[in-house]
Amino acid sequence: MTNEIKSADGKLGILLPGLGAVATTLIAGVYAVNKGISKPIGSTTQMGTIRLGKRTEKRNPLIKDFIPLADIKNIVFGGWDLFEDNVYESALNAGVLEKTTLDMLKPELEAIKPMKAVFDKNYVKKLHGTYVKEGKTKMDLADQLRQDIRDFKAKNNCDRLVMVWCGSTEIYIEETTVHKTIESLEEGLRNNDVNIPSSMIYAYAAIKEGIPYANGAPNLSADIPALVSLAKQNNVPICGKDFKTGQTLMKTIIAPGMKTRSLGIAGWFSTNILGNRDGEVLDDPDNFKTKEVSKLGVLEEILDPENNPDLYKDLYHKVRINYYPPHGDNKEGWDNIDIFGWMGYRMQIKVDFLCRDSILAAPLVLDLAIFLDLASRAGMSGVQEWLSFYFKSPQEKIAGLKPMHDIFKQEMKLKNTLRHLKGEELITHLGLDYED
Questions:
Q1: Rounded Cα distance, 196 and 138, in Å
Q2: Phi, psi angle pair for 268, to nearest 5°
Q3: For the residues 231-255, what does the mean pLDDT come to?
Q4: What domain range is 99 assigned to?
Q5: CA dihedral 82, 84, 89, 94 (to 10 degrees)
């Protein structure tokens, strides 16, 4: 099937709504790798391997050597932000990377200046940016974004583009009639419908321009029938929502292990403290609810209490996020897990994950951009379930179907998709002899 994948040669432009901590950490990291200053640790596309055939064959190439992926030396970055700071200035303000490192990349980072953002304070009350577009309607704003996309592609001589939302979590919005069809959505854009937040305008603009789109926040964004349908119609791959980085990453690793060993869980209490822009935004209850819904769904799907009532039907799951400025971008995720085993005897697991939010998220943005570009070149459109590996609340192709959260099953699906694209035998670990 290799001949069905178009060439990865040429420039890939990665467009990032929100040039804050995550986006600037990604951009600086790619430049650092290209200069030999660092290695792309955390990136599956750059450092991950894939097993081919039987174990005895010992074929385990790097994924990037197995399937044609965009070369990170041929990537150019652009984006939009609420503040006029260039990427060097924004990275300094974010405080994720050391100044000595940023200074080694200063010319490249200073050259990237944001385009004016589409932003409505009603959806993110804690932010006060002034570098924003003006328009009479949301459709006017979408048209301005589409022009930005065309201008960026021409100016940078890009062969292909991808967009990954790295902006803030917006207030909680439920799907309504305006989200049902592309006609109702476009009418809503022309009428400034309150149920169309900024992230949805970006998603609409990208899909209309034929550009793959990933959503790194728990916002509805492209996760509505209208945009899923438009993506299929325009042959555009999409995926989301909400990067799976810190505490939820731990849950999708630990919970499958508990279930596999038939150990019960009575309660799981999770709290986070962080002090970056994301923490400030989530300090607002309306924005926190969007994140809470994303975080709470993980255990329900993995543990499946309906089919395992003796182990999980009474599970009490609580999630808290607290804004704590002294931590900056260093997020602390603390979990108390009350489990029980043989004869109902109680035990506990304590997890204190002292993580760096943007350090974990940046390689995910890179992988999503590169894999979405692959999907586009392979003629794959609509929701890309095989990229659920990267999200807290993955989109599903079938409306109403609960997403799969077990990270090990997600990894198998991702790698089997790559094997399928190259005509390799899928690995299911169902072989009856030691070679399988």
A1: 8
A2: -140, 105
A3: 95
A4: 2-243+359-421
A5: -10
